[in-house]
Amino acid sequence: MERHVQELDTLVEISQILSGGMELGEVFQRATAVLGHSLGLDRAALTLEDPATQQLRIVASVGMSPQEQRKGRYAAGEGVSGRVYQTGQPAVVPDISKQPDFLNRTGSADTDPAGKRQSYLCVPVFNGQQTVGTIGVLKPFTDEPTLLSDQRLVTIFAGMIAQTIRIHHQVRMERDQWLEEKQQLTDDLRGRYRFDSIIGSSPAMEDVLGTIAQVASSRATCLLLGETGCGKELVAKAIHYNSPRRDKPLIKVNCGALSPQLLESELFGHIQGAFTGAVRDKIGRFEAADGGTLFLDEVGTLDPTLQVKLLRVLQEREFERVGDHKTIKTDVRIIAATNLDLEEESRTGTFRDDLYYRLSVVSINLPPLRSRREDIPMLIDHFLKRFNAENERSITRISRDVLNVLLRYPWPGNVRELENAIERAVVMSTGDELGMDLLPLQVRLFSEQTRSDAADETVEALCAKLAGHAIRQLQVYDGQVYDLVVGEVERQLIHEALVHCNGVKLRAAEFLGINRNTLNKKVKDLAVPMP
Question: What's the pTM?
Answer without folding.
Answer: 0.56
